[in-house]
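Obj.: predict assembly geometry.
Materials: sequence records (below).
Method: joint structure prediction, all chains together.
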Amino acid sequence: KQEVTQIPAALSVPEGENLVLNCSFTDSAIYNLQWFRQDPGKGLTSLLLIQSSQREQTSGRLNASLDKSSGRSTLYIAASQPGDSATYLCAVRGGTYKYIFGTGTRLKVLA
Amino acid sequence: EAEVAQSPRYKITEKSQAVAFWCDPISGHATLYWYRQILGQGPELLVQFQDESVVDDSQLPKDRFSAERLKGVDSTLKIQPAELGDSAMYLCASSLNSGTKTEAFFGQGTRLTVV
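Observations (raw structure tokens):
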């Protein structure tokens, strides 16, 4: 059974810092991995999708990497801003198109 | 830009009452998901549709929850009777099945409070 873990559960950093969020999964037989952002009381916004054959994806200040063999992904946020404050969730997708989520990392960027 | 539409955004209901949520996926998306997210946790799959067929409802409490997607487009999730423990965010998502490029898109969710 696929299990997804995110570390740390919460993170508070000063504005301008570069930071790394971690996601690990137990079954390496995934089709892809998706990173989402969730603001309080809102739905999920897709940030990056990494296909199983890819090593990384970039969008603006965000860079996500995938090491399928070790069951790990990292989300790197460069030059963090207060507007980046949110919960970040990773989800892995297996062959049935089912997405399994981690419990998220709550990020607070202090001005 | 195409979005997944959900209604209502918020719902307060009394214990033992019936409640229903509606979801309209992005046009052309064959796969539709209903997830439940308890505060502070990650979303958990309740039911997954491929067109009008249920693919996975293993985590759906079938004694009180039901879901349908009659024409393979929009979907309704119903709870009857609601219990205090059902208070959560209910999220709908859809995807266009395109192998490893398949990306899930989520709606804004329905926040349910059972009192």
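Conclusions so far: Chain A has no helices and eleven strands.
To do: check interface contacts against the pulldown list.
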